[in-house]
Every structure is written in C-alpha cells, then in structure tokens.
Write a structure and sequence with these properties.
NDUFAF7; alpha/beta; Rossmann fold; 2 domains; about 375 residues; about 35% helix; SAM-dependent_MTases_sf; four-stranded antiparallel β-sheet
C-alpha cells in the first residue's frame, strides 16, 4: 500500500489499471487464455480497444514470442484501436522496446464505435480485448418520478445562459436509449398476471409514497458491441472491468463514481454535474447485462423466447469469471504472491470480473 501511495503521488493520476500494476503477469494470463483456445491453423489476429500506454500489447507479444510456436508469433497481428493521439504514440514507444514486435503491431487512431473506421466486414476469427474500457464508455441517464410512471430521458441544459446547468426530463426518443431500456427490461410488454398485480400494487403505493427512480444505461457499450458484431462476426471477446464500485454517493442503478485527484489525494463528488474539467468518471459494469447486450447484438433477442416458438439458439458461448478465478485458471499467481501468503492480484481486485464470449457454430 505504501508502494502504491508513492506511485500515485509520483504520477498524480486517479488509478493504475491492473495490467499496469501487475505487469507482465496480468497480460500473460490473457495471452495464455488466447493461446489455449485459439484456432492456430489461421494467423492470430488480436484487436485491443483503448490500449492505454501499450503495456498489455507489449506483454502479450512478449508472451507469444516466448511461449507460442514460432509460426504463431511470426505471423500474428496485434492492432490497437486508440482514440487518443498521445496514447497512440506512447503505445508505439512501449511496444517498440522489443524491435521484433513492431512488424506485428499497428495503432489505428480512431473511435472504435464508428463503424466506418472498420471498413468491410471481416469474417475471419480474431480476438478483441477490452481492459477497463467499459467503465469509461458513455452512459445515458433515465428518470421516473415514481414507481410506475414511464421512464424519461435526462437532458442537461444551461440555466439562463449561465455556466450552471440543470436536468430536464423528456420522453424517450433516442433510439439507442430506447433499445438499451428494452434489453434491460425496463418497459416489459405483455406482462404476466403476477406482474400486473405487482404493477397495480405499486401504482397504489406510488400515489401515497412516490419514490423517484434513476438508472444509468450503458448505451456506449451497446453501440460498441453493435459495431464489433457487425464488422467482426467471428470475434472472440475478452473484457475485464469493475463489477461494483465502493462509496458511490450518486443516486441511480449503475451510478458512477466521480472523483478528482490532486497531490495524491482523491476527492469523490456527490453529484455527476461536478464532473467538469479533469474529474474522472467510472461506471460499474453489470456483467449479466453485458451478457444480454452481447447476445442481443449478435442477433439473439428476447422475442425469440415467446411461447410456441422453437427453442432459440444463441450464436455465442459466454462465461463470467471473478478476476481471481481467471488468474488461477490461466495465469501464474505465484508470481504475485508475497512472503506471508498475501497476493494482491487475487486479494485486492475482488470487485473486478472477466467476461469471455466466443462464437459457436450455430448460424442463423
């Protein structure tokens, strides 16, 4: 903890990602999981969305160079899709520490959610890595004044042309927000008798004790997975992120942690409207919802579950693992174990999970 505190004061940033703190072992586990399950009869292609400083890319390439058959390393491609120009340059610098990596590595400076940047659909197998990406993707806030009223979009407007802003509530009209709310099941159609009775009871209670509801929808995640499934239909996905965040004071389901860092000290904001300038915004990832969005974007929908229809067949196999379970399965946890048995890689990131999603042979 003293070592971490020193690092944070030196760099004056809010947090280090696990792949940075535990290099190379964290990325080695990811590389091992790819090598164990990849089809090595075709050249290995890995995309990383939001590669940070390039640590994951370099470590994965290191692992392949040291452990994969020479043919796999020599023919592989590792493409980083990075929206930040400064980080794109940093990634080339990091990976370039090993000269032979540079012929396998490229950085594409663009927005991964923009489908135009991906070009034509690529049906070949590939891997997509997203490490601590989901927590930074845009979310949309929706609001309801009580337990039964329809959900509304939350808009931000300036107060009389000043720098102050306030919330304004409007009916759902954004297609991405509407789709996301349907996937979440916020506006279920054809409710059962039990749900109708529950709704009626809530209606009575809401008149006496109205309780406003707020929810943050991962619309950025929906847009990104939509793009990836359309352009890379045979991709295998590995995503890791925070499943919950401690001490969140902002109201609403899946509400973010908004914080600023100065002189090594963190200040958490009680209101997301304070997140102006250099504040960091972290959203927790609902991994079960992530799985639903993934299946939805791959062509599987709740409509296929209607009575009388044939049993629906999903085109993805998915699994959610605690980070410790993933590291014990694919990594080398002894490398991060201290003398007294404490292991920060396994013990300090209990609020993080891995999501793995691979294509099946079931085609529509």
């Amino acid at each position: 903890m003293k070592h971490l505190d020193k690092l944070y004061k030196m760099h004056d940033i809010s947090w280090f990602t696990p792949v940075e703190l535990f290099k190379p072992w964290y990325a080695y586990a990811i590389a091992a999981s790819i090598l164990r399950t990849a089809n090595l009869s075709v050249p290995l292609k890995i995309y990383e969305i939001g590669g940070g400083s390039g640590t994951c890319a370099k470590c994965v390439l290191d692992y392949m160079m040291l452990n994969a058959p020479p043919k796999v390393y020599n023919n592989m491609k590792y493409i980083s899709v990075e929206i930040s120009s400064s980080l794109a340059e940093k990634q080339l610098e990091t990976v370039g520490e090993v000269q032979s990596h540079l012929s396998k590595f490229t950085v594409e400076h663009r927005d991964a959610t923009d489908i135009a940047g991906w070009g034509c659909k690529d049906p070949q197998p590939c891997w997509v890595l997203m490490l601590e990406v989901l927590d930074n993707l845009p979310h949309d806030l929706v609001y309801s004044p009580d337990q039964v009223s329809p959900w509304m979009e939350v808009w931000i407007e300036k107060v009389n042309g000043s720098s102050q802003v306030c919330e304004v509530y409007k009916p759902l009209q954004d297609p991405l927000v509407s789709r996301c709310s349907e996937i979440v099941g916020m506006n279920e159609e054809n409710p059962s008798l039990r749900e109708k009775l529950s709704f009626a009871a809530k209606g009575l209670v809401s008149k006496v004790f109205p309780k406003p509801r707020r929810a943050w929808l991962p619309t950025g995640c929906l847009k990104l997975l939509d793009t990836l499934h359309q352009t890379l239909p045979s991709m295998s996905l590995i995503a890791s992120d925070f499943s919950y965040l401690p001490d969140v004071s902002i109201p609403g389901d899946r509400a973010p942690l908004v914080s600023s860092k100065k002189d090594g000290k963190t200040l958490d904001h009680p209101n997301y409207l304070d997140a102006q300038g250099d504040a960091d915004i972290f959203f927790p990832t609902d991994f079960l919802l992530l799985e639903q969005i993934d299946h939805h974007c791959s062509g599987f929908s709740k409509d296929q579950m209607k009575r009388g229809a044939f049993k629906p067949v999903k085109s993805r196999r998915t699994i959610i693992l605690d980070s410790a379970a993933f590291m014990e399965e694919f990594g080398m946890p002894l490398k991060t174990r201290t003398k007294d048995g404490y292991n920060p890689l396994l013990d300090d990131f209990r609020n993080t999970k891995f999501y793995l999603s691979v294509p099946t042979h079931n085609k529509k």
